[in-house]
Amino acid sequence: MVNPMGNKFGLVFLAFLSISALFFPSIPECLADSMSIIEKVNTFRSARGLRRLESFNLLETAAEAYALEIAETGLFSHTDVSGKRAAERFKAFGGTSLKVGEVIGVGSSEEAVFQAWVRSDSHREVILAPRWSHIGVGEAEFKGRKMMVALFIDRPFSDMQATVTDDGCLITADMSHPETVEPVLLSGGKYYDPLNISEDRKYFEFFIPFKAPVYFLYLGYRSKGDIVLTDYLTLKIELK
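User: That's the sequence. What structure does it adopt?
Assistant: Structure tokens below.
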């Protein structure tokens, strides 16, 4: 005798597999094992019209450290044993990003972890966030399996420096993707536009026309009428 409920569940299961294949196409098995997590992420993003991410060594260092920490403590969480989340942990390594995306996972292989990520709504949302420009991945052995941590940031600026002058503070930086960025600086509750931008739009300067023992600087860019703040710096100086 045929169990009608068994057929029904079978149909539901097949339908789920079909939907998964339609919306979350996996990387061909012949390529998956030879691709790094970063390559898998970029293939997944590119297929959806999103920009590819660049690797960033400071992110990799932070991701690797947290993967090792999880493996040692056994605390599988986005909050570490001291209560810090991704942005705070990244800052401890010298990062300046205000927003840091993070996905973590454990599996028998990198491919197993990656497939678990892209089939999870919350993890997939992080991976496919349009704002990201850079990625860093770390891994560790965790109870005989792979412990993976991937960190994501929007890094429109690099090589940020501050120089104190007689009448204020000069902030300089390079632009990582100058074709899309109109830089803006927030300090002391006031927004500043660049004092100078190079002709190739790869370098800019801000000037803050006052002296203070501590500058709290937020750097970002204008996007469709909004201001997106991406980086935070604290600058302490000795006033004479």
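The chain has two domains: 34-153, 157-233.
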